[in-house]
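Data deposition worksheet. Section B asks for the primary sequence of the deposited chain exactly as it was used as input, without tags or linkers unless they were present during the calculation. Section C holds the resulting structure in token form. Section D is free text for depositor observations; keep each observation to a single sentence. Incomplete worksheets are returned to the depositor.
Section A, Depositor: J.P.
Section B:
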Amino acid sequence: MDRTVLLVDAGYLLAAGGNLTHGTSRRNEFTVRIGGLLQALTIHVEKESKLPLLRTYWYDATVHDRLTHEQEAVRGFPYAKLRLGRLVGGQQKGVDALISRDLTTLARQGSVVSAYLLASDEDLREAVAEAQSLGIQVILITVEPAGTSIVAEPLIWEADEVIDLDADFFNPFFRRVTEE
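Section C:
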């Protein structure tokens, strides 16, 4: 059976989504309805691909192995796999390696015919190229138009297609934290 997969770099998604909807990328300044966002992304990918979704891989970082509320929500979402790197000095470590490994493993095993990648780092370009050489299409999903965002241009160039999601897509899921 032909299937697709969604691979999400949560650091990029949440920072860019917060910036797009509320003008801030600081996670402590907004909340996210993760269940609703995951469901909307799943529906969007299945509609775009016209294929069933194998699962969603959600990549994030943790400090001292303590899960955030968002990570707990992902863990409880059906057909979602939480993959965790580390947060060191405010920077994610190991997340790109996890994404690369899963993308190329899925391609090598013939588990999917396409992959939807919601990420921004140039470090993923080689994994995209390898997955493509193994016969799958890799579609890049960006927050905001790809040419005006923080997405690395070499990653954009490597992708088979780029899908831009805008504020209308993200507004229902992001809420600014208000001080009371």
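Section D:
The longest strand covers residues 53-62.
Residues 28 and 180 are 15 Å apart (CA to CA).
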